[in-house]
Amino acid sequence: MSVDAATVRRIAHLARIAVAECEVEHLKDEINAMLAFVEQLQEVDVAGVEPMTSVTPMAMKKRHDTVTAGDDAEAVLSNAPATEDHYFLVPKVIE
Amino acid sequence: MSELTSLSLAHARDGLAKKDFSAVELADAHLLAIEKARALNAFVLETPERALAMAKASDARIAAGKAGALEGIPLAIKDMFCTEGVRTSACSKILENFVPTYDSTVTSQLWRDGAVLLGKTNNDEFAMGSSNETSYCGTVTSPWRRKGSNVAITPGGSSGGSAAAVAAHLCLGATGTDTGGSIRQPAAFTGTVGIKPTYGRVSRWGIVAFASSLDQAGPFARTVRDSAILLRSMAGHDPKDTTCVDSPVPDYEKSLGKSVKGLRIGIPKEYRLDGMPAEIEKIWEQGRAWLTAAGAELVEVSLPHTKYALPAYYIVAPAEASSNLARYDGVRYGLRVPGRDITDMYEQTRAAGFGAEVRRRIMIGTYVLSAGYYDAYYLRAQQVRTLIKRDFEECFKAGVHAMLTPATPSAAFGVGEKGKADPVEMYLNDVFTVTVNMAGLPGIAVPAGLDSQGLPLGLQLIGRPFDEETLFSAAHVIEQAAGHFKAHPWW
Hints:
The structure holds two protein chains of two kinds.
Chain A lengths: L4 H10 L6 H18 L34 H5 L5 E2 L2 E2 L7
Antiparallel strand pairs in A: 1-2
Chain B lengths: L8 H9 L5 H14 L6 E4 L1 H16 L10 E5 L26 H8 L3 E6 L38 H8 L5 E6 L5 H7 L2 E4 L19 E6 L2 H11 L29 E5 L9 H16 L3 E5 L7 H16 L17 H12 L2 H14 L5 H23 L4 E5 L16 H5 L6 H6 L3 E8 L5 E8 L4 H15 L9
Parallel strand pairs in B: 2-3, 2-4, 7-8, 7-9
Antiparallel strand pairs in B: 1-3, 4-6, 5-6, 5-10, 9-11, 10-11
């Protein structure tokens, strides 16, 4: 399988990464080199093989459903690029 | 190099306990060494004030008879670990100004035991790379050079800064993370010891996430004993990471000196690659001879799906990365680049904030997870992963206690020498280490010798799940036979 320029643009948009038109060709080649490399997996017989979901056989330990942290808006917002009154600020999203 | 920076971690620990020198003196000696070694670019942030304050507190605890297991030991921390109040960037532009308000579980346990923070070390951006060349903070130069050459050599990656800092005696130990070989490959390239513990042995909480089903943290040190001491402090159950196991942490140091007599060590025949340098084959053979001489029984084993580990990894790891890195959206933390609307803001932020390698991996991950391709790529890769793990399980079931392999397919290469035309060339560095992450097993890289150009070569031991102790015992046997290897300061 390989990707074309339109697919590269579609993936970039899905990944929310702006890609300049002049980068598309180069990215296409790189992605296709990777896809060619992983192509060999097609020759493995995986019929009836369970896909791995957990590498360590263990029962997931759950904690009690209680409040362990919170009420610290200053800390939560301390690295935000734009804030106001304990809110994250984003550009207007209502059409 | 001063007397204090030439000590092993274990010797420094003993010297501090006997009050031969103070933690402040020890920190000072290392801070001076770091300052003189800036040409290596091993550190992306030096924290001398914090180091001296922590060392002073250590001296007080030692005086009060309340010393912890790592009291006063100066360490370097890979920039993937969150450190409270100390910038943590993952060596990415997108986190350039990120100052965590908390410590990772690993670092908080190191501080709990009395360790001292010297600074944050360089790594490939988001730990994606094998040469430290994808770092936004610039590449790291290894303290090692080829004989009679001043060409800059890579310390490997992604934990290149930690490996270089330990090899250059800038710290007594360092932390690393290993998703496909990022501890073991740089350890092998720099003549240091690096262990990736079993998946779940060490908490991942507070470590910048790359591929969550593969990431594990582990230590770098100059001796097997020092790495055993460090792992004991790093490991242990953490309720904040549900994949972290709740089982007691052994005193790994006690594994050293334990006989390997009767241990069955597997030699996987699939690790004999076509075109592998003769020196790698030779060091592997040397390792087999050392273990045999120490009484281990060597058996040839087969791991038939070995060749599929790297391609499967390059589906699973980018897929998980694309999901993990979706959080960098310019809203809650990190870089924001304004855009026409919110989508454009996301796209501009991520295009400007991520480097080329990270962007490429996110896009591949997005593609293999996208509708219509999920089964062909991601699902199949996870099935292959089951087969890779099964190969190991069958060997262990047949009575094999550990396996011996080369750590890397070559010695360290020069900065800029690899991966320019084809990214896959760089990825092949991890061919011997990546299987271990895919199967969730523990693996240790231990220095075994130098090649004809004078660069270090390492051997890898792969263990059964949660049997790091056997790895320390066997690695110690190799270390005693091989000796220690030291880069000659040129910086």
